[in-house]
Amino acid sequence: MLRRSALALAASAATAFLSPAAYAADTIKVGVLHSLSGTMAISETVLKDTVLMAIDEINAKGGLLGKKLEPVVVDPASNWPLFAEKAKQLISQDKVAVVFGCWTSVSRKSVLPVFEQTNSLLFYPVQYEGEELSKNVFYTGAAPNQQAIPAVEYLMSKDGGGAKRFVLLGTDYVYPRTTNKILRAFLKSKGVADADIMEDYTPFGHADYQSIIAKIKKFASEGKKTAVVSTINGDSNVPFYKELGNQGLKATDVPVVAFSVGEEELRGVDTKPLQGHLAAWNYFMSIKSPANDAFTKKWAAYAKAKNIAGHKDKPLTNDPMEATYIGINMWAQAVTKAKSTDTDKVIAAMAGQTFTAPSGITSKMDEKNHHLHKSVFIGEVKADGQFNVVWKTPGPVKAQPWSPHIPENKGKKDEPTK
After folding, report:
1. Quick one: average pLDDT of 208-233?
2. Which residue, 19, 264, 312, 398, has most beta carbons within 10 Å?
3. Are residues 126 and 181 in the same domain?
4. Which domain holds residue 260?
């Protein structure tokens, strides 16, 4: 009996030194860290469902390493400090092998120390401001040179209307402010004067855009062709676009290009007055390809079967859904290659992974910088809330996590610190 006790104690001690990812279990637990309530639920809830759909697909094919995947879903409720608490819970209590989650950069910044201190893995699926590179994060959304910079270049071009003045309008947090810092430096390099740039911010959940739209109209009336670059996030987009329509600010007068508005955010808006306004993404639901036809049909069937609110009757797909879907499939391929869910082994196996994205374009995880090579699309809003692609890059663009337009980035390496 004493011998059995000693063996049990030794086994317990050994287990204490295992990383969460190596923890033995009958299933492989997968964390889902998205806001299902609060201001960001309008955007994030569908990403939770995308992860669950992909998990069902992987399990239907036999799972990974002979085990089924088991999702563990938590709701950080658009509360940024709560993201860190929920991340700790997923890693330390639930023993997940990986986490798919976050939307806002403030939520990602909140959880980053947790993942680095525990040597755990986060897949982040949304466009962001760059200026970050972590060994423990794979960024499957766009860096600024894969969205913001091409969008502004388009607005300045003849095809994009030849804009000379710019309104940088965003929600007041790190992503819009840092993106606009990069855009200011880029515009300055193109000869745009400070007097021709208007910058304004509103808090999360802001609902009254009457005075701001009036300011934009006044700024645009001062002689030069003007365009708005919107980094408004979450449910504030609904009143913003409604007010654009109310005040008759048409795309032919002042085009708006958005970086956080896709098919899902336009669901509750009358898009007829918004025709011609723009969004820049790496995927649109309207893209014609066999891969996208399969993806949209798959999502429609899943949404109906699971009775997903809104989507069971009007299924929509968007860019962060595609980035989420790419991420979980690449992670599954890396686990298979590594024959393990151990963090360091999976990180090594992720380098160079490829996956045919719903856009029909093969995405590749860069061998060094933990970002995807992604094609860039600019779409015009149509009356039905979909987008007509008016511009795209010839092929995938390699991400630049450290913007070359910010002087202090000179000499920074394009790979995470070991």
Report:
1. 95
2. 264
3. no
4. 145-287+379-409
